[in-house]
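input
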Amino acid sequence: MLRRLTIEEYGLIPKAEIGFAEGSTIFTGETGSGKTMVLGAIAFVLGERASADAVRRGASRAVVTLEFEPDAALRARMAEGGFDLDADEDATIAREITSAGKSSVRLNGRAATAGYIRELAGDIVDIVGQHEAQRLLSPSYHVELLDRFAGAPALEARERVAQIYGERNALAERLKGLDRDERRAQEQYAFAKFALEEIEGAQVETGEDERLTQRRRVLDNVEKLAAALRTAHDSLAGEENSAADALGAASGALAQVADIADQFAQMSQSAGALQSEVNELATRLSRELDEMEFDPAELESINARLEVLDTLKRKHGGTLEAVLASAAEFRETVSLYGDSGERRTQLQRELAGATTRLEEAAAQLSRLRHGAADKLRKAIEAELKELALPSARFGVRFDALPQIGANGGEDVEFTFAANKGEAERPLVKVASGGELSRVLLALIVSLAGVRGRTALVFDEIDAGIGGATATAVGARLGRLAHDGQVVCVTHLAQIASYADAQYVLEKRESKSATSIALREITNEAERTTELARMLSGESHEAALQHARTLLQQTRERRAATA
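output
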């Protein structure tokens, strides 16, 4: 429920504060007084796109603040987005736009985005304006209204149709792509199969090329290595002047004086340890020397193997790691395209299944729509009788589509006949402006039972009507306000007479600027005067008496339907 709207420097309104009634809040004023600017401010604060033109001339910024009482579902939704409230706290949206066109918005005191506010807007208000009436002329909007009237089962069924339709299209596209790319796929498969067989046949091991390269270097330098090993061995443990003998002699000499001082004993031990290490190293050198043989067959085998590995590396990334990674990719490609026939068969089965599911879901949606259509027809015709169209007939026509689409298997179009004896024809072809406004109101009232308890905001729902019809429309809006909150801009006294709160917009012009002021009507005399102006353009006694009579009749009607 809307609580309060505060407007600062928006459009032609320098400052205004509006308190909404729980029933109906009506805005009136002379033609051109800017009544719809208030509704523009509501749309702006609820996230509608705006430009710097929204800022009043000469001001640096415009700010619109809306306070409202959210229901439990909306409270939970805001809490999920990080905009939680205390249990008894009202919600607040404050949106600002600067003269440079920079916009910002805060929800419950926290920074938000206009896009997020637009997502919430449908749970706060339902704005019904001239644009809504024009949408009624589009059959594509009719199916949306019918599904909304049918309620959650139809909306869920339509969502299911759209989901299966998307899945079916994706399967069909995959199957088409499989057929379209068959030749390229076969080429990829053949290459991957050949390359994989080549790599797997080579039995590549990580680091193998480095080990073989090192072994080849040894074989290429076997004579040089043998000479170096022999010299090193003889120096360490040869028969003459070897390091081992020298260290042994040093250790023995020091052992003879070890009892004189501890350090000589330690030196003797160190020399002995060095002699042991030298002997161990000499043994290793001897083993290496024994194994140091030149084998031409081994060298030839190593060169051949390295040539195979180098060829693979040139083809597949420069390293054996890259070769093995390529093998994994080729293996996946072979697996993917090797069973293309089986995959095609599987896709065809899945596509057939999706088509069957789509047909079943569309048939269920169609049954729900046909059931709702008859109920909607009766509800609309009952409403039209109360809106001064006693003989009007309303219908819903279904035309089967050649193929099921995301919205189902049929087109939906509303038909209408205003008078007895006339054939029902498409609404777009037969409804006048006044009739269209009443059909729209009838639809809104009929949908009120299935929509959430959001405020209904009407912008010129009275277009093209007057007289007894205006009285009927006013009465229906009054009953609608009895069950929920209604906000309405009107130029008809018959509608304004049902106001629980009424604001008059007045245009004020000075030499330098034009502005709009809002004035709340707070007593019977002011209200009578405003209704008299709306009835005759003047406030003479006859007009005032007419206004008093209208107010009295309105009170009696409201009392009778309370």
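quick obs: The chain has 20 helices and 15 strands.
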